[in-house]
Write a structure and sequence with these properties.
By secondary structure, this protein is of the alpha+beta class. The chain contains twelve helices and 20 strands.
Length: 563
């Protein structure tokens, strides 16, 4: 395992150090010996002539002093076709400066090896070179690294590195693919970061959105720090910044993520729970003796704490707890198998975003429903007030007809009773058949004909009586037409036409035989407001209504789009 591999598995960390690490993706090349190390006598001729007694097996846990060193290993080429391929050798994350030799021939010069810090010039993180075909002969070959580590300021020394031998183009492609995947995961995390930032700032939303922004930002910084070497040539010691960012971010996330879930599920005593999380995580961190074990401990602790919080939320049936539980299970699986390109924290962030998005949508729907309920109550109160005048006027008309024509009075009472009965039946419904709506309209026109001594008629064309519409919308249009018009004629007709378009249905309601007695703005008034609210309630965002003067009186067009 090496730092480069450590970064690939960056969400989980490693428990041991095994450096330097050597691999070959070329099947005909195998590493045949462990790394050995010796003090560099600073003599170029000494690369292959040092006696075996001066070489010692490389000790992973030995903290070698600052100075000049030689490290060596051997490889075996078993296929004569190897020299026909374009092979390369790739050295990654060897801190400070080094030279790489293949059978005594220098292939890589990374920085300047020096005896002192002044003479040494630090190299870069990633160095690679072609292997000349004439060096790829069948048999055993020696690789030697000449290293000076005076510029290495950390407790981890130059031996934390990674050497790979393989086809040059394919190995470069792997590096690019790694960069693309890191960039992809960073892009995914940018979405919840921006979403929660918007919810907190633009909508003055809850504190947990700001906390989640901070969690996403920490993960993003970690990803960006890791991504930079794929696009920019960076000095070898940049790896220390990556390491420290990597470890610090895991410690912070192990505290912030559980606290976020406490707030997300609205658990009681959130401040006390936060202190317990900090104390517990700090205690675990204090007792972890090996620095390289911290990521495993912190990530495991993160999953355990979040799992317990989510289990409590599941028991209490808190909204979104099931989604988070699924996310924790997937994150735990990822943690166990050490999937290369995405980690437990990223999984939790993605599933948390699903919960936030769901809550946002539900909140929007609830706000819309609340507005509709409030407006509907307002309209119903207005209608009750209006209906009281309608009832009083109708009773007055009944008294008059009882004196003039008792038979007509009885018919008026019957029509009034039928209309009230029908309205009572449908007022609480969301949708009714259009046939039922037209029946209510006819009862109302019958009443108004008796009251005003005018013949009111309703004509329909191409109506599908089984089609469902919100109750009392055409009834309201008829009420408006009668209330807000003068009648120079003895007959007034209301005409309702249905037209079927490609993806919507159109209802055209026209009033003929009267003139307006008021000037109103298009789509204004209590009646049209009631109709609009009813349409939005039944066909959200799929309707349109427009109303205005026509050559014969007044025309209203209602359009309802298909799903």
């Amino acid at each position: 395992m090496n730092f480069f591999t450590l970064f690939i598995f960056g969400f989980w960390g490693v428990s041991t150090i095994e450096m330097p690490y050597s691999t070959s993706t070329e099947q005909s090349i195998t590493f045949t010996s462990s790394w050995v190390i010796a003090k560099d006598p600073l003599n170029t001729d000494s690369l292959g002539s040092l006696p075996d007694s001066l070489w010692q097996k490389f000790d992973d846990h030995q903290k070698y002093t600052i100075g000049n060193w030689l490290i060596r290993t051997s490889i075996l080429i078993s296929d004569s076709s190897t020299h026909k391929k374009v092979l390369g050798i790739f050295a990654r994350n060897f801190i400070s400066a080094f030279e790489l030799y293949w059978d005594g021939k220098k292939l890589i010069q990374n920085g300047t090896v020096g005896i002192t810090l002044t003479e040494e010039r630090e190299g870069v993180m990633h160095a690679n070179a072609f292997i000349p075909p004439e060096l790829l002969t069948i048999g055993e070959h020696t690789i030697i690294l000449r290293i000076s580590n005076h510029s290495d300021y950390s407790k981890w020394k130059w031996y934390h590195g990674h050497i790979t031998i393989g086809e040059y183009d394919k190995e470069l492609q792997k590096s690019y693919e790694l960069g693309y995947m890191i960039f992809f995961t960073a892009g995914i995390l940018l979405i919840p970061f921006l979403l929660n930032l918007y919810l907190y700032v633009a909508r003055n939303s809850a504190f947990e959105h700001l906390l989640f922004c901070l969690v996403c930002m920490i993960i993003l910084v970690d990803r960006i720090v890791l991504l930079l070497p794929s696009y920019v040539t960076l000095p070898a010691n940049y790896i220390h910044g990556v390491i420290y960012t990597f470890y610090i971010s895991r410690v912070i996330r192990s505290i912030l993520f559980p606290w976020y879930f406490v707030l997300l599920f609205s658990l009681p005593h959130s401040a006390i729970l936060f202190l317990l999380i900090v104390v517990f995580n700090g205690g675990i961190l204090f007792f972890v003796s090996e620095f390289f074990q911290i990521p495993n401990w912190m990530t495991g602790l993160l999953l355990v704490e979040c799992g317990l919080i989510t289990l409590f939320a599941l028991i209490k049936k808190r909204e979104g707890s099931l989604i988070i539980a699924i996310g924790i299970l997937i994150a735990t699986f990822v943690f166990i198998i050490q999937f290369q390109y995405i980690g437990a924290a990223s999984i939790l962030a993605i599933f948390s975003t699903l919960v936030v998005g769901r809550k946002f949508v539900e909140k929007e729907k609830e706000e819309q429903r609340a507005k509709l309920r409030a407006a509907r109550i307002e309209i119903e109160l207005l209608k009750k007030s209006i209906n009281s005048h309608f009832v009083l006027n109708s009773l007055s008309s009944i008294i008059v007809w009882l004196r003039k024509n008792p038979k007509a009075a009885i018919q008026l009472i019957d029509a009034l009773a039928k209309e009230f009965r029908c309205i009572t039946q449908v007022s609480a419904m969301k949708l009714i058949p259009i046939s039922q709506e037209l029946e209510i309209c006819k009862h109302h026109l019958s009443i108004m004909s008796y009251r005003r001594g005018i013949t009111y008629k309703l004509e329909t064309h191409d109506i599908d009586e089984n089609e469902m519409i919100p109750p009392l919308i055409f009834h309201t249009l008829i009420e408006n037409g009668i209330t807000h018009s003068n009648v120079p004629n003895s007959i007034v007709s209301f005409i309702l036409k249905r037209k079927r378009k490609e993806n919507y249905t159109q209802y055209i309601f026209t009033q003929i035989g009267s003139t307006l007695k008021r000037r109103g703005k298009q789509n204004s008034g209590v009646g049209l407001k009631y109709i609009s609210l009813r349409l939005e309630e039944s066909f959200p965002h799929r309707w349109n209504i427009r109303s205005g003067k026509s050559s014969t009186g007044w025309k209203t067009i209602i359009e309802i789009k298909d799903k």
